[in-house]
Design goal:
With about 180 residues, the chain is of the alpha/beta class. It has 6 helices and 10 strands, in the order E-H-E-H-E-H-E-E-E-H-E-H-E-H-E-E. About 30% of the residues are buried.
């Protein structure tokens, strides 16, 4: 039996799957939307999803809607609590693009921060979504964006983390509830 969740290796979802796995084979996907749009092909398998899931590709779809809309095709097999990896809200003080590149589930955290520093206006960054915090980190560095929210552990692994132009503005330590669904 397979268990499907968000990749790549190193995401919070991968970590939660490693915590949960017993005899299942882990399949990491590039987005939760990829799983959602194809879960009818995975009958008999499982899906692992955080309750903070919020789609940036499927309008109006978050964990609650996914759960309600698919009650006939999914059965909750298990739930558990596992903290997310510590996250950092990072600013590139020498940005080229006035963009906050984030995972959709962290949108509220970014908006709260931008409001706090009075950048929730036309002078502030556009918020753009990445399919995972790891992808957000890669694109943040490559495209020289202004802000991101990423896993602190992943950020500290890259050489750019010691560059003074990257400033950690907030450290975030949210808890998470994870849901394991069996696909009927």
């Amino acid at each position: 039996m397979n268990i499907h969740t968000l990749g790549p290796t190193g995401t919070d979802s991968d970590r939660a799957a490693q915590h949960y796995l017993t005899h299942e084979t882990l399949i990491l996907h590039t987005s939760f939307e990829e799983i959602i749009m194809n879960f009818h092909n995975y009958r008999g398998d499982k899906i692992l999803m955080p309750v903070a899931f919020k789609s940036n590709k499927l309008a109006g779809i978050d964990w609650a809607e996914f759960n309600y809309l698919n009650w006939m095709n999914l059965e909750i097999e298990s739930t558990f609590s596992l903290p997310l990896m510590t996250m950092s809200l990072v600013e590139n003080t020498q940005y080229q693009r006035n963009i906050a590149l984030i995972h959709a589930a962290t949108e509220g955290l970014m908006k709260r921060y931008l409001t706090k520093i009075a950048l929730n206006n036309a002078a502030g960054p556009s918020i753009v979504f990445a399919p995972s915090k790891i992808v957000a980190l890669q694109d943040f560095i490559k495209n020289r964006n202004r802000f991101t929210i990423i896993s602190e552990e992943q950020f500290k692994k890259i050489p750019e983390s010691s560059d003074e132009k990257y400033r950690i503005r907030q450290v975030l330590k949210p808890q998470m509830i994870w849901v394991v669904y069996k696909i009927l």
